[in-house]
Structures are given as structure tokens and as C-alpha cells.
Amino acid sequence: MFTRMIENIKEFLSDVRNELKKVSFPTKAETIGSTTVVIVFCVLMSIYLSVIDSFLSWLVGKII
């Protein structure tokens, strides 16, 4: 029973090692580019949502 379990663990770790060899990690330039895009998008969305929130607050204030 334990021998079979140890063999299963060895096989699993071997499969994990083989799959990790197939992984392609992004280069430093790709990582910086992607991060820049995400930060710019977040800033633009926060500005957009702030403007919409201000407008809706003003509109509700006028209605009430």
C-alpha cells in the first residue's frame, strides 16, 4: 500500500517537473509593458468613475 502511494507521488512529481519545463515565462520587457497597460487602465477607469459619480451626485442633489 505504501509502496504504491510512494510510486504515485514520484510519478506526480515527475509529471509536475515535465509540465514546468513547458512553461514559458514572460520577459522583463513584456512584464513591464503589461504592468504599464494595467496601471494606465486603472487610472483612466478611476478618473472615469469619479466623473460619473460626481455627475450622479450632482444630479441627485438637484432632484432632491
Rg for CA atoms: 26 Å
> Helical proportion?
over 70%
Identify the overall geometry. elongated
Helical segment count: 2
Catalogue the unreliable spans.
Answer: none
The CA-CA distance between the termini, in Å, is 74 Å
Strand content: under 5%
Secondary-structure-derived class? mainly alpha
Number of strands: 0
Give the number of domains.
1
Give the overall pLDDT as a whole number.
96
Largest sheet: none
Following the backbone from N to C, one meets helices and strands in this order, namely HH
Care to give the gist of this entry?
The chain is mainly α and 64 residues long. Helices cover 89% and strands 0% of the residues. It is elongated, with a radius of gyration of 26 Å.
Characterization of this structure:
This protein has one domain. The chain has two helices and no strands. It has helices at 2-22, 28-63. The longest helix has 36 residues, at 28-63. The termini are far apart. The mean pLDDT is 96.
